[in-house]
Amino acid sequence: xxxxxxxxxxxxxxxxxxxxxxxxxxxxxxxxxxxxxxxxxxxxxxxxxxxxxxxxxxxxxxxxxxxxxxxxxxxxxxxxxxxxxxxxxxxxxxxxxxxxxxxxxxxxxxxxxxxxxxxxxxxxxxxxxxxxxxxxxxxxxxxxxxxxxxxxxxxxxxxxxxxxxxxxxxxxxxxxxxxxxxxxxxxxxxxxxxxxxxxxxxxxxxxxxxxxxxxxxxxxxxxxxxxxxxxxxxxxxxxxxxxxxxxxxxxxxxxxxxxxxxxxxxxxxxxxxxxxxxxxxxxxxxxxxxxxxxxxx
Length: 297
Prior knowledge:
By secondary structure, the protein is of the alpha/beta class.
């Protein structure tokens, strides 16, 4: 059946973004009654709407009359102690009056069950592993992170997109291709990277449990013994993390220190960074989210 388009439907916000322009053109080919002029008119209308949304987003996050939303990411290999520090940090922030929201890696109600099922039967290829975790991440950004930031809350992410980058590249995928999966990019205001050696990571994990199949990287090392595989794989992951820390200027925390020393350092780093201005790098991600929720200006 030939699609039927009206001028009004083409003007609907979110329906004529650049990403779907080609699809609209194809529909017009199928329906000669709709002229190319209508398409151009609708595209201009959408572009104008998105420009207004960009102004709205910038004004919202640069408003100094109220506390703006902040995104703080905790990154690092397994066994680095970041989850312990994340909990201590949250308690401290709440006592200081912050409205805090937490989001964890691989926790989307929509995507997590799929990942869990595929992991259980060991059928995830490195590419599928990457795609599913990126989908989980995007779902949480749209449903949890951006709404909380818009409301002026502080979001703590127990792992963020850098986890995907480090693990996927360690599995042999191309960095640029993986990065594209997370576009439009949402950059944290602060990234705490908990640095430990591969040996420390292995020892801390082995002290409590046997590493799971994908955690140990057995899908790429092809080693039968989980702990030995884990040390080899985590060495690759940490190498990628160290590169990311340099490129994106993470705040590196020596996670070989005591829990108390790490917590005090995090407090200091947060106080130094909490007044950083909002970054325009995040405009594309925010505008796409505003379009998706049908925001009118």
